[in-house]
Write a structure and sequence with these properties.
three-stranded antiparallel beta sheet, 6 strands, 233 residues, cytoplasm, Arc Repressor Mutant, subunit A, mainly alpha
């Protein structure tokens, strides 16, 4: 049985339907590049405008507080300046202003400069409560031997292991490994005369003691013998 032949009316209707839909499909495919650029620019402007204006000192202080609350180690002034896109001098002035404000208002925390950076610390008055809360009586303290060894290195650095042992009168190999493992001391080259490894304290050592530099150490060094007068063991 032969298929029916479409009439001229049906052909015209089919052709008309096709012509009617074609402009819509073409319009859907065409994208105005100018419109796309405008949209992208608008999104970028929205992201930029979402950052707060740091023109005022109060806004800058708040931004610095937000950053310093999340740092693991003291943050340097240049890093903070780069992050906030501000001059280093203005960042330094803001940090000093904040530090003075926390000290004068007797808050529970202090903003201190330690080494080359700044960080929040618990005010010494409330340190016992913080320790009790965090450690619950299970503090891992350094042994007396470790503290004595650390003191010798701090006041006579850079110094070799054998000279530290000579000052203390005992073997310090295990203690040295412990102090290195805790990040309190590190290797600082070799002694040109003996070839022994030299040790010195780290930034973490200063941070743990709340010192800006080794010059802030108490005057204990005169009680220790000069390392040059000690023979290597």
């Amino acid at each position: 049985m032969s298929e029916p032949v479409p009439t001229p009316v049906q052909l015209n209707r089919t052709s008309g339907d096709r012509d009617a839909t074609q402009p819509q499909e073409t319009a859907e495919r065409e994208i105005d590049p100018d419109a796309t650029t405008t949209v992208n620019r608008g999104e970028a402007e929205t992201e930029t405008s979402s950052a707060p204006d740091l023109t005022s000192d109060a806004a800058l202080d708040a931004a610095l507080e937000a950053l310093l609350l999340v740092v693991d180690v003291p943050a340097g002034e240049e890093l903070l300046a780069d992050t906030l896109e501000q001059p280093v001098r203005r960042i330094r002035q803001a940090l000093q202003r904040l530090s003075a404000w926390y000290a004068d208002s007797e808050r529970g925390i202090d903003l201190r400069r330690v080494g080359d950076g700044w960080r929040f610390y618990t005010r010494e008055t409330y340190a016992p409560y913080v320790e009790r809360y965090l450690l619950d009586g299970q503090r891992s303290k350094l042994t007396r031997a470790a503290l004595e060894t650390l003191a010798v290195i701090a006041y006579r650095q850079p110094v070799t292991r054998s000279r530290v042992a000579a000052v203390r009168g005992v073997n310090v190999d295990g203690v040295i490994r412990t102090l290195v493992g805790r990040g309190l001391i590190e290797e600082a080259g070799t002694d040109p005369e003996t070839g022994g490894i030299l040790y010195c304290t780290t930034e973490l050592f200063l941070e743990r003691l709340g010192l800006s530099s080794l010059k802030d150490l108490p005057p204990l060094a005169p009680l220790l013998p000069e390392v040059d007068s000690i023979d290597d063991v």
